[in-house]
């Protein structure tokens, strides 16, 4: 898999199961960064972890939660038990205009690794397909972002109704 170069600190969402007071609770120790088997966690501009979808997608394995332990009287900044088993990030996949399927080239690379099958392909005349993202199925894992050969996918904050 090709990794896109980073020119500045990533600015993705916090790791899965980050508590509401994450910014005040996380001491930036980096235990979650080194525990992530997907290597998608990186230090953000504030020195605390963020998910960098250019590196890959989250499998919700829980290793970041296991590595994050209470310190100095503070609770763990990542706590899976506080989320009733909800395996999702507060972001949704967004398809941009650079998608080569929109340009007339058949491509399904974003849909292949999508476990929740949130990316469907609507047939168009001439044998082409149009990718469509089902927001209700997207768990925010971001695996589609790194799978896209032209960088047409991004993750946008989840807007709660």
How many independent structural domains? 2
Number of helices: 4
State the helicity in percent bands: 10-25%
CATH topology of the largest domain: Alpha-Beta Plaits
Number of strands: 6
Distance between the termini: 36 Å
Q: What profile does the largest beta sheet have?
A: 2 strands, antiparallel
Shape category: elongated
Radius of gyration: 17 Å
What fraction of residues sit in β-strands?
15-25%
Q: Could you say what the CATH architecture of the largest domain is?
A: 2-Layer Sandwich
Give me the strand/helix succession: HHEEHEEEHE
From the helix content, strand content and strand pairing, which structural class follows? alpha+beta
> How would you describe the oligomerization state of the chains in this entry?
single chain
Question: Would you write up a description of this structure?
Answer:
The protein is of the alpha+beta class and about 160 residues long. Helices cover about 10% and strands about 15% of the residues. The chain contains four helices and six strands, in the order H-H-E-E-H-E-E-E-H-E. The protein has helices at about 20-25, 30-35, 65, 145; strands at about 40-45, 50, 90-95, 120-125, 130-135, 155. The strands form three sheets. A two-stranded antiparallel ribbon has the order 1-2. A two-stranded antiparallel sheet has the order 3-6. The mean pLDDT is about 90.
């Amino acid at each position: 898999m090709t990794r896109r170069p980073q020119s500045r600190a990533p600015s993705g969402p916090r790791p899965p199961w980050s508590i509401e007071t994450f910014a005040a609770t996380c001491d930036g120790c980096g235990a979650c960064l080194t525990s992530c088997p997907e290597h998608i966690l990186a230090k953000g501009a504030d020195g605390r972890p963020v998910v960098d979808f250019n590196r890959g997608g989250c499998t919700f394995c829980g290793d970041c939660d296991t590595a994050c332990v209470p310190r100095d009287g503070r609770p763990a900044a990542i706590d899976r038990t506080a989320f009733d088993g909800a395996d999702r990030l507060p972001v949704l996949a967004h398809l941009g205009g650079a998608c080569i399927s929109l340009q007339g080239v058949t491509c399904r690379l974003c849909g292949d690794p999508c476990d929740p099958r949130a990316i469907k392909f609507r047939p168009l005349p001439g044998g082409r397909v149009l990718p469509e993202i089902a927001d209700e199925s997207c768990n925010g894992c971001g695996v589609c972002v790194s799978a896209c050969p032209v960088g047409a996918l991004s993750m946008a904050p989840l807007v709660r109704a």
